[in-house]
Predict the structure.
Amino acid sequence: MKRIVIVNGPNLNLLGKREPHIYGTRSHADLVKTVRARARKLGVEVSVFQSNHEGELIDFLQKEAPGSLGIVINPGALSHYSLALFDCLQSLSVPTVEVHISNLHAREEFRSKSVTARAAKGVITGLGFTGYLLAMEYLVEG
């Protein structure tokens, strides 16, 4: 069965608790449930991973991304400075869609720059959990 890799970076495990006025009140478990439900409707499997550690994210991507339809990634704060994660995404031969729950451009200035976005086919920002679903649909449609 076709598969999509979904990766969430630092602090996304705190969804629902961390700054709910920005990120909402739904948890990371709610996000995973939402993504899995959409995957079933799209006829694909998902490999979902979250870590607060850059190296673990890279190891997971290098292992799981090859052979998949693509990657949906929310790098969290790593998007603003992780050249290692950028290099990883750039080296993989599958498309990547970068997703952010909040609108980065409506927040602090430093958040409006994403070094990892240069390795992505596209970026979805500010649409909450819906951004993940749209990214999945894009990868399935090819």
About this structure: Residues 34 and 129 are 8 Å apart (CA to CA). The mean pLDDT is 95. The first strand starts at residue 3 and ends at 8.
